[in-house]
């Protein structure tokens, strides 16, 4: 999480996938924060499911939206990012079919609100490929 000016916190500001054959994919990202240490599946395994920890809207209080992401590898390893503690974990996404793995993503990121309540990243979709 990142605390902006005047106590306006944001949670996640972006998600980046590091591909096993080199290269990376980053969807839209908010302007705050720094990338944390990468999490990786063990060799030969693929990312197959994920979930987000999301803080529900708080009305007049400071909203952060998505705060952390966790993922499961094809061999069952759990990867969990070091996001903020706010919110509750959502359900796991449907897993990729056998033999497939995550190969792309799309994120929903709120633009800076210019004095309003910034949230950063609000939603993630991951796509499976064989």
Automatic annotation (TrEMBL):
Q: Which InterPro entries does the record match to this protein?
A: VOMI (IPR005515), VOMI_sf (IPR036706)
Taxonomy, superkingdom = Eukaryota
| A Gene Ontology cellular-component term | extracellular space
Q: Which Pfam families match?
A: VOMI
- Please give the SUPFAM superfamilies that the UniProt record associates with this protein: Vitelline membrane outer protein-I (VMO-I)
Query: Per its UniProt record, what Gene3D superfamilies does this chain match?
Result: Vitelline membrane outer layer protein I (VOMI)
PANTHER family from the xrefs?
A: VITELLINE MEMBRANE OUTER LAYER 1 HOMOLOG A-RELATED (PTHR18841:SF0), VITELLINE MEMBRANE OUTER LAYER PROTEIN I-RELATED (PTHR18841)
Please identify the protein, giving its name as recorded.
VMO1 protein
């Amino acid at each position: 999480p990142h605390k902006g000016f005047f106590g306006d916190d944001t949670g996640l500001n972006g998600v980046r996938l590091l591909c096993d054959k080199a290269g990376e994919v980053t969807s839209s990202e908010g302007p705050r924060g720094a990338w944390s240490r990468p999490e990786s599946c063990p060799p030969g395994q693929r990312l197959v499911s994920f979930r987000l920890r999301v803080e529900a809207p708080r009305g007049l209080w400071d909203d952060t939206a998505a705060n952390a992401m966790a993922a499961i590898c094809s061999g069952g390893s759990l990867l969990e990012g070091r996001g903020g503690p706010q919110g509750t974990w959502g359900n796991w996404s449907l897993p990729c079919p056998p033999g497939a793995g995550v190969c792309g993503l799309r994120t929903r990121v709120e633009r800076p609100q210019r004095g309003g309540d910034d949230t950063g990243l609000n939603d993630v979709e991951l796509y499976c490929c064989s």
